[in-house]
Every structure is written in structure tokens, then in C-alpha cells.
Amino acid sequence: MNKKKNNSLYYKIINYSYNGYYDYLLGIFIKKTTYYFSFLSLTAFLLFLT
């Protein structure tokens, strides 16, 4: 019983760390795409002005 409990806790920790890692990667990806699109819109705006 105790071993099973430890295993479930271990899997919870592993699952949580994997989810945190993917959330971190997704956050970086969203940040980069946001910066990229803002840069594109800025350059398009500047080209439109000139």
C-alpha cells in the first residue's frame, strides 16, 4: 500500500514537471511570436508612412 502511494506521488511529480516544462516552452513560443508579429506590424507601418 505504501509503495503504491509513493509511486502515485512520484508520477504526480513527474507529470507536474512535464506540464510545467511544456507550459514554459509554450510561453516562450507565444512571446517570440508576439514579438515577431509586433515587429512585422511596426515595419509595415513604417513602410506605409514612407
From TrEMBL:
Any idea which UniProt keywords this protein has?
Answer: Membrane, Transmembrane, Transmembrane helix
Q: Where do the TM regions start and end?
A: 21-49
| Membrane listed as a keyword | yes
Tell me what organism the protein belongs to: Arsenophonus nasoniae
Report the protein name in the record: Uncharacterized protein
